[in-house]
Design brief:
The structure holds two protein chains of two kinds.
Chain A lengths: L20 E6 L2 E6 L4 H7 L25 E2 L18 E3 L3 H16 L15 H9 L18 E2 L5 E4 L8 H10 L4 E4 L6 E4 L15 H5 L5 E3 H6 L4 E6 L8 E7 L2 E7 L12 H5 L14 E2 L8 E2 L2 H19 L4 E5 L5 H15 L4 E3 L6 H10 L17 E5 L3 H4 L1 H12 L3 E5 L15 E4 L6 H14 L5 H7 L2 H11 L6 H8 L3 H13 L3 E5 L1 H4 L4 H14 L10 E3 L6 H6 L6 E2 L3 E2 L3 H11 L11 H10 L4 E5 L3 H4 L3 H9 L3 E6 L11 E4 L8 E4 L4 E5 L11 H11 L9 H11 L8 H7 L1 E3 L45 E6 L24 E4 L1 H6 L7 E5 L4 E8 L7 E5 L7 H4 L16 E7 L5 H19 L7
Chain B lengths: L3 H15 L6 H15 L2 H12 L7 H15 L1
Helix pairs in contact in B: 1-3, 2-4
The chains are: A alpha/beta, B mainly alpha.
């Protein structure tokens, strides 16, 4: 891999970014390094490795262990090389008799209070303390081991994933500093002084009860066995490792899967990863146990009807059964009577193949993807305004932002590794503006400077963004040079006239948004006056009936203030699932082929037809909600769903279930018997990200390699199953490796022409567009021009049309939904891990005022009714909500959060309006009717599964 | 719960309402027609056509005009 550093080496202190070089001599070796580099790092770059314990290169130098002492010509004493900056002409000695004696003395003191159980210690084979004892030549401990010591200090085993063994702690503070500098949580501290000093979590609590978010940064930083992964303690040191990409959120962290044979010992964040730079969160770092969970589906299964037991069959029989059913449906009901859904959890190559199967083998464009229910408005809105359906920046770009505007996103919970990076920038002094109905955790960032919370009412985003833009325009804060050079003048003039209308003023919308006008004015000024201002947004923007309008409103604000086309600025959609960007790029939507090329364009179609050897339909296909309606109407009868749980994740569950029951053939390919599979006729075992090769594309358009670290449990990687199904349908597909699929993608997708596996392996990752114009990819987009017809940015008029879903006397509260850190999406993976200790049920958060009015206490069972349905959850009373707004998560299927969400959707894309549902809440004593039916059906389907001899489910 | 026809009526009306600032009714209709042409499947376009042939009573005026415009185009 092309790297400017060796990711496997610890250089002791972080790199300096200075362009000015200084030259010094270390042990007679001359070396030039950027100004600000420590002597320790300079030496390491020359492969002179100074002993160290408290230093590591992802933390600022601390200078506490003194092991790295050196001598510098002309200076007195023995300064610590980690805290001493390299200077021009400096002459440094790292090894001599005096230093050797000093270091041995230091090590001797450490070892006099350390258990000498090296042979049975979990860190044996990977212990920096042991290595340093060897490096300094420690041969005896003159103090003996009988004095006061910490050898009986208790172990903290409260965290399910790691153990804190205080007896092995050398109080180097690396864990404390990692928690502060890398993670930004400040959960750890050094308590006490001198001999009594010790690492403490929270207010001297155990790790689980403290604010610790279990990101693993402390475990990673620990140089001894004090903080060790439980899996390492149980299994011992790994013998090989393979770099791959996390399959949880859209940050797309790089990890080293550390292995013993085909067993995964631990996932260690990869320092070479360009998205995460060696950081991780509790999900990617620890929650991989689902991959080997007993619930995994290992054998293909079929059944004639959904009330029948499953029958385990061979792959050939299952694929043959599925193909015959699809063919007979098409014979009887026509070409358009079947379709498929691609997965944002699967690889680019797999997603590409599924949409190809649908377009080429099914012969229609009835392909859609779960981005329909999350970021489809991003695709639409950014294409309309900036010309490309993607975020404009790298994650690292935030480190150059002076103002960060977060709208409808919760980065510390949903994109934790990026959340930590954002917090690092906020601690450095960037201003924070949060527009969210809830007081989210980024607002509680320790050492946060200037910040403002705009607690708007759910459903009023567009009114708010218009008001922000109104202030920019009417107070003369726009970037006139940028607008004149980079934007379409006519569209700008039209938008300007619209936005300047008094109905868009903060004072005029105050009653609608609930946000004081002065707060909006202040936020607009902060944003517009910042040299670099960036917008980060999530599903709180898209999942509304005006989701697309809001995305365009965001782009308008960025254009008007000239915050596009360089580092530190931009429009940044935070993608939910690992490959949402990729599944959209790969042509999953019914109206466009890979690379966002419209099916009606004959030139585009012709290129695909030549390579695919078929004639393609020139009309868009059905979107997911249209598929459901058509299924209920009886016109749509067969569906192939890869790695997606529409029965749990899509809105208005009872409508979805009715549609699924109406199908003649539902083929589900998944790693578990998910909620959708309970309505299926064919169940094809899926493979986890650990079991296959491919690529994921993260929220910064970064294409990262996914590498197989263990064989698929069922014998096939997901792409191989799609290939088999295509062949059984009579459409030939021949690939021997996903790299060949990527070569075909590159051939047909203008933004991917320069992408191949060889180049990905060489560069580690590539950000599209990657083509002749940008041979090694494009970290920042729209630097010179926009990919629009005239190369200019387009201002779109953003009329605020309130949702029809309004609070009323019958449904006086507004429900909004979201996620939490420890669970992921529908929870199919994380619910099958120890992450359950943090969130084993979804609760309804309600403001104390609303609770008091209804006589509700913490933990009460609450019936939540909407126009769509009713469900029951426990109450959690919280001031994070405003009065009138309630909140829940949707990680547990039995919660039925989507039984109450309605089928209202975005006007342009049909993205569901998950974020606004009018509800009533009252105390109840039993589960809802839907929940009773759900429990009964779950029990029935688990029995049908166990009767097939397969593994039993949850 | 929507049946298919209710869904297309509500979808096209929503497109019209959200583009109301585009200008007069025919400017809005042009945008709506373009949107439907670009994003709607054949089956929904045909259902819209049938509904318009019946007079399209529940359609927003700009949506009705958009539908008529679309089907004139497809005849041409």
């Amino acid at each position: 891999m092309l790297q400017h550093f060796d990711p496997n080496k610890d250089y002791g202190t972080p790199a300096s970014l200075s362009e000015k070089l200084v030259t010094l001599e270390i042990d007679g070796v001359e070396i030039s390094v950027p100004e600000g580099t420590s002597v320790m790092r300079a030496a390491a770059l020359a492969d002179i490795n100074i002993p160290k314990l408290c230093a590591t290169d992802n933390l600022e130098a601390f200078g506490s262990c003194r092991l790295c002492a050196v001598q510098i010509e002309g200076r007195r004493g023995t300064p610590a090389s980690c805290t001493t900056p390299a200077e021009q002409g400096m002459k440094v000695s790292t090894q001599n008799e005096k230093l050797a004696k000093l270091r041995r003395n230091i090590m001797e003191l450490y070892i006099s209070d350390h258990p000498l159980d090296c042979l049975t210690c979990p860190a044996n084979g990977d212990c920096e303390l042991q290595d340093m004892a060897g490096a300094v030549g420690l041969r005896e401990v003159r103090y003996g081991f009988d004095g006061a010591n910490h050898l009986d200090a208790p172990k903290d085993t409260s965290n399910p994933y790691f153990t804190f063994d205080a007896s092995k702690c050398i109080v180097c503070s690396r864990c404390v500093r990692a928690c502060e500098e890398v993670q930004g949580t400040f959960a750890l501290t050094i308590d006490g002084r001198g001999f009594d000093s010790k690492v403490a979590a929270g207010q001297n609590e155990n790790f689980l009860d403290s604010e610790c978010v279990s990101c693993g940064a402390c475990v990673q930083a620990c140089p001894t066995a004090t903080l060790s992964e439980n899996s390492l303690i149980q299994m011992g040191q790994p013998e090989h490792s393979i770099s791959t990409t996390c399959a949880y959120c859209g940050v797309g962290c790089s990890f080293k899967a550390e292995m013993k044979g085909d067993q995964l010992v631990r996932m260690v964040p990869d320092k070479a990863g360009d998205a995460n730079h060696g950081h991780s969160c509790v999900k990617g770092r620890f929650a991989f146990g689902y991959a080997t969970h007993k619930d995994r589906i290992r054998t293909p299964m079929i059944r004639d009807a959904i009330d029948q037991p499953w029958k385990e069959v061979s792959w050939e029989e299952a694929i043959g059964f599925a193909a015959n059913r699809l063919k007979s449906i098409q014979y009887e009901y026509g070409r358009e009577s079947i379709g498929g859904i691609t997965s944002s959890r699967c690889t680019n190559e797999e997603t590409y193949l599924v949409q190809k199967l649908i377009r080429a083998a099914f012969g229609n464009n009835n392909t859609d993807t779960c981005a329909r229910v999350c970021h489809s408005p991003t695709g639409y809105g950014l294409k309309q305004t900036l010309g490309e359906s993607a975020g404009t920046q790298t994650f690292d770009s935030v480190m150059k932002s002076d103002c960060v505007l977060v709208i409808g996103a919760n980065p510390t919970d949903a994109h934790p590794v990026f959340g930590s990076l954002m917090r690092r920038r906020l601690r450095q002094g960037a201003s924070l503006i949060v527009a969210d109905p809830r007081e989210i955790d980024i607002l509680k960032t320790p050492h946060l400077g200037d910040s403002v919370h705009l607690p708007l009412r759910p459903g009023t985003n567009v009114a708010l963004i218009n008001a922000l833009a109104h202030v920019v325009i009417t107070e003369g804060l726009e970037d006139t040079d940028f607008i004149a050079k980079r934007c379409e003048p006519e569209a700008y003039a039209k938008w300007r006239a619209f936005i300047a209308e008094s109905r868009n003023a903060p004072e005029a919308v105050e009653d609608v948004t609930g946000v004081p006008a002065e707060s909006i004015r202040q936020a607009a000024r902060t944003f517009a006056n910042a040299p670099n201002a960036a917008i980060y947004y999530g599903l709180g923007v898209t999942e509304h009936s005006q989701g697309s309008t809001m995305v365009m409103g965001i782009a308008n604000l960025a254009l008007a203030t000239g915050n596009i086309g360089r580092e530190g600025v931009g429009v940044n959609p935070l993608r939910g699932q690992n490959n949402v960007q990729g599944s959209c790029d790969m042509g999953s939507f019914p109206h466009e082929l890979p690379g966002y090329q419209h099916v009606a364009d004959p030139v585009v179609r012709n290129r695909f037809e030549k390579v695919w050897g078929v004639t393609l339909d020139d009309e868009p296909g059905l979107r997911i909600p249209n598929m459901f309606d058509a299924a209920i109407a009886g016109h749509f009868r067969g569906l192939y769903v890869q790695g997606e749980d529409i029965a749990q994740s899509d809105p208005n569950t009872q409508h979805v279930e009715a549609a699924l029951r109406a199908l003649d053939c539902l083929i589900v390919q998944d790693i578990f018997l998910n909620e959708t599979a309970k309505f299926a006729h064919v169940l094809l075992p899926g493979s986890t990200f650990l079991e296959k090769n491919g690529t994921f594309t993260n929220a910064e358009r970064r294409i990262n390699r996914v590498r197989k670290v263990m064989p698929p449990l069922s014998g096939k990687e997901d792409w191989e199953v799609t290939v088999d199904l295509a062949n059984a349908l009579g459409y030939p597909m021949n690939y021997s490796h996903p790299s060949e699929i990527m070569d075909e993608i590159a051939l047909l997708t203008p933004t991917f022409t320069g992408v191949n596996y060889e180049k990905l392996d060489k560069h580690g990752s590539l950000q599209w567009p990657c083509n002749d114009e940008f041979p090694i990819g494009s970290p920042i987009m729209h630097v010179e021009s926009f990919p629009t017809l005239e190369g200019k940015g387009h201002f779109a008029v953003t009329e605020f049309v309130p949702t029809s879903e309004r609070a009323s006397r019958r449904f006086p509260l507004l429900l909004t939904t979201g996620r939490i850190l420890s669970q992921y999406n529908v929870g199919a993976q994380t619910r099958r891990t120890e992450n359950q200790v943090w969130h084993h049920e979804d609760k309804l958060e309600i403001h104390p005022h609303d609770a008091e009015e209804r006589g509700i206490n913490e933990g009460d069972w609450l019936g939540i009714s909407s126009r769509a349905g009713q469900t029951v959850l426990r109450a959690h009373i919280s001031k994070r909500m405003q009065p009138g707004v309630v909140y829940t998560t949707f990680h547990h299927p039995g919660s039925g959060a989507n039984v109450i969400t309605t089928d209202n959707s975005d006007w342009a894309t049909n993205c569901p309006e998950y974020k606004v549902t009018a509800v009533q809440v009252e105390k109840v004593s039993q589960p809802s009717e839907w929940q009773k039916d759900f429990a009964a059906n779950n029990q029935r389907q688990q029995k049908l599964l166990s009767e097939a001899g397969a593994s039993s489910g949850e | 719960m929507h049946n298919e026809q209710e869904r297309i009526i509500s979808m096209i009306n929503q497109i019209a309402e959200n583009n109301i600032s585009a200008g007069d009714e025919s400017a809005v209709a042009t945008i709506v027609a373009g949107h439907v042409k670009k994003f709607w499947p054949r089956r929904m376009k045909n259902m819209l056509k049938d509904y318009i042939e019946q007079g399209g009573p529940a359609l927003h005026p700009a949506a009705l005009q958009a539908g008529k415009q679309l089907f004139e185009e497809s005849k041409a």
